[in-house]
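Subject: Re: docking follow-up (nicotinamide-adenine-dinucleotide)

Dear J.,

Thanks for your patience while I sorted out the input files. As discussed at Tuesday's group meeting, I've set up the holo structure prediction with nicotinamide-adenine-dinucleotide included as the bound ligand rather than trying to dock it afterwards. The sequence and the ligand SMILES I used are pasted below, so you can double-check that they match what you have on your end before we go further.
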Amino acid sequence: MRIGIAREIKKHEYRVGLTPANARAYINAGHEVMVEEGAGINAGFTDEAYVQAGAVVESSRQQLFDRSDMIIKVKEPQPVEYDLFHEGQILYTYLHLAADEQLTKALMEKKVKAVAYETIEEADRSLPCLTPMSVIAGRLSVQEGAKYLEKPFGGRGVLLGGVPGVPRGKVTVIGGGVVGTNAAKMAIGLGADVTVLDISAKRLGYLDDIFETRITTLYSNEENIEMVLRDSDLVIGGVLIPGARAPHLVKKEHLKLMKPGAVLVDVAVDQGGCFETTHPTTHDDPIFEVSGIIHYCVANMPGAVSLTSTLALTGATLSYGLQLAGSGIERAVSESAALRKGLNVYDGLCVYRSVAEAFDIEYTPVEKILSI
Ligand SMILES: NC(=O)c1ccc[n+]([C@@H]2O[C@H](COP(=O)([O-])OP(=O)(O)OC[C@H]3O[C@@H](n4cnc5c(N)ncnc54)[C@H](O)[C@@H]3O)[C@@H](O)[C@H]2O)c1
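The structure tokens for the complex came back this morning:
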């Protein structure tokens, strides 16, 4: 198969869909890899590195799209890219179609075979191509929070680890899933005093088992949230209710309970945010202040650490991509239930139920068209 790696054009997207090492894996499997000129540069990969791996560098986007059987990207195609696709082409990238009617319809019209990273789902319900980004956002949330606690950024001027004779900073993590667990891990590593709240007893039990006495676990309810807010230097929001908007667990009036210069990091901002005062920010202008509390609400946090994120993302997507390229999409989705869940649009049809329902378009089960 001819694989095309397109340069990302979305603002502040510095990742690339395939590293030179991964390009080599496709080439070793008998495929050709074409890379758009400069595609990897913001993630730290030069065109020469791709050439050394055996790929060809292409300066024309049109040529790259025209000649590729499968396009590998990171973010969803932007409107100016829609016309580059051709019928039967495989698109392998993050798509988030349920939030984008225009893109869904464009991919259907173009008869693209679109596999979304975020809906590839294993039998244990894990989302292998989405989880690494939550791990990164969770870990980064503490790093960013610690930075904005510094006085020059408007923070309280607190060092999370404290020093001998001086108390440690207090970190509260609301939501103890992938983001929350990784935030807790980093905050413990910095020497902070860490509390994690979740509504799931099972999840709290798991966190108590792995972190033992190094964290305090609490049921997430308004009383406990109000109690911990009074003392917290840094509060990280990482709740998720699948398929729903995040609940506002920290209300505007709660900010009055907090110490001036405390920091809120709302990782759940991409689902609407779990703090009432959240609004999405960008890496250009990541923070704002409400009632003396610093808010950090960047919706694509992993983009800030593009090298780590690219390595983590491409490590997760490689095996499924090789399956798509090696078997062809029809056989690959017949053989892999995980990839079948990843398929969103096929030959002009919407084959992912929640995307079809979001826009009231006809849903066609993959099983029906591919006679699986
Ligand atoms: N901003 C970014 O760049 C970025 C990056 C990655 C993920 N995210 C977002 O972070 C959020 C969390 O992702 P995740 O992978 O950790 O999800 P997850 O499903 O692993 O964890 C969510 C946790 O929230 C808990 N929860 C639900 N309701 C709660 C409540 N009322 N109080 C406390 N806990 C509650 C759940 O029990 C679960 O343990 C998602 O919205 C995800 O999209 C954002």
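A couple of observations from a first look. The mean pLDDT is 96. The two ends are 23 Å apart (CA to CA).

Let me know if you'd like me to rerun anything.

Best regards,
T.
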